[in-house]
Amino acid sequence: MFLYGLLTIALAAIPSVLSQAIEYNAAHNVTPIIGTWSSGSKQVVTGKFANPSNLSFNYPPTTGVCFSFADNGWYEVARYRFNSNGSQPQCITGVLNWHHGQYQLLDNGSIVLIPNGDGYQQIQDPCAAESNFIENYNDTELYSHWQIFMDQNDGPKLHIFNFDGSPVSPLFQIYNPPNMLPTTQLRNVTPSIDTGSSLLAMNNAGARSWSSPADVMALLSGVFAIGVASLLL
Ligand SMILES: *[C@@H]1O[C@H](CO)[C@@H](O)[C@H](O)[C@H]1NC(C)=O
Ligand SMILES: *[C@@H]1O[C@H](CO)[C@@H](O)[C@H](O)[C@H]1NC(C)=O
Ligand SMILES: *[C@@H]1O[C@H](CO)[C@@H](O)[C@H](O)[C@H]1NC(C)=O
Ligand SMILES: *[C@@H]1O[C@H](CO)[C@@H](O)[C@H](O)[C@H]1NC(C)=O
């Protein structure tokens, strides 16, 4: 459970067609989904967001989310965001999340993202016992449906909806073909034991229920603290 922040609150006001099988027609999907799609100021970009070989990130100047879909069945996701906590406003959690793997466009209009196992995320939570760490991220994500419209100013605009119907920020096509890291395994990860508890854990990047200390790599970096501080200014 987490809040998505002000942008998503604003977007929640946008009417959306929910829980309805998508029609792959020109009215709703003006272009194929192949390409790189980035939200807001388009500063979060797959292909240059993460360095899997050393588990680091190239911090974008602003928060956002980016999805890439390639015609070989691979996707890549990059997310950078701050989650606020209404009951503890001083406890803003920062999340950088990266993963790639195989995507499936289901007949009922949903998208399933199946990570390759080499994804990871960095979480800073100033109020937690361990305030800044990196952990593996390998959760299968389900998106209930998607649509592509033509924006008069920005061109093709992709709307993706989370499994619960809430919208992801509108995504603008910034590259086609997509800008992605190599679509192969990019670091060695020891497979974790599947507890079977979350077959489709879905979009829980940044959730507070992160896993066992064994998965967690402590991190010595002040960059995130700076990011949170600037958000508060
Ligand atoms: C907010 O903080 C409280 C107290 O630490 C915690 O129980 C709750 O899960 C947090 N909510 C979110 C959305 O993170
Ligand atoms: C990680 O690797 C990238 C790309 O090779 C490099 O640019 C960056 O400086 C490295 N970061 C750290 C913290 O080693
Ligand atoms: C589409 O099918 C998948 C797999 O059966 C299911 O998990 C998902 O909830 C379905 N999507 C919708 C919008 O019903
Ligand atoms: C990632 O999850 C898949 C199941 O979705 C599993 O088969 C694979 O072993 C996991 N990889 C790692 C490195 O844990």
Automatic annotation (TrEMBL):
It is a single-pass type I membrane protein. Residues 1-19 form the signal peptide. This is Protein ROT1. The lineage of its organism: Eukaryota, Fungi, Dikarya, Basidiomycota, Agaricomycotina. GO terms for biological process: 'de novo' protein folding. The keyword Glycosyltransferase does not apply. The keyword tRNA processing does not apply. Belongs to the ROT1 family. It is found in: Endoplasmic reticulum membrane. It comes from the Eukaryota. Its main location: endoplasmic reticulum. One of its GO terms (cellular component) is endoplasmic reticulum membrane. GO terms for molecular function: unfolded protein binding. Keywords: Endoplasmic reticulum, Membrane, Signal, Transmembrane, Transmembrane helix.
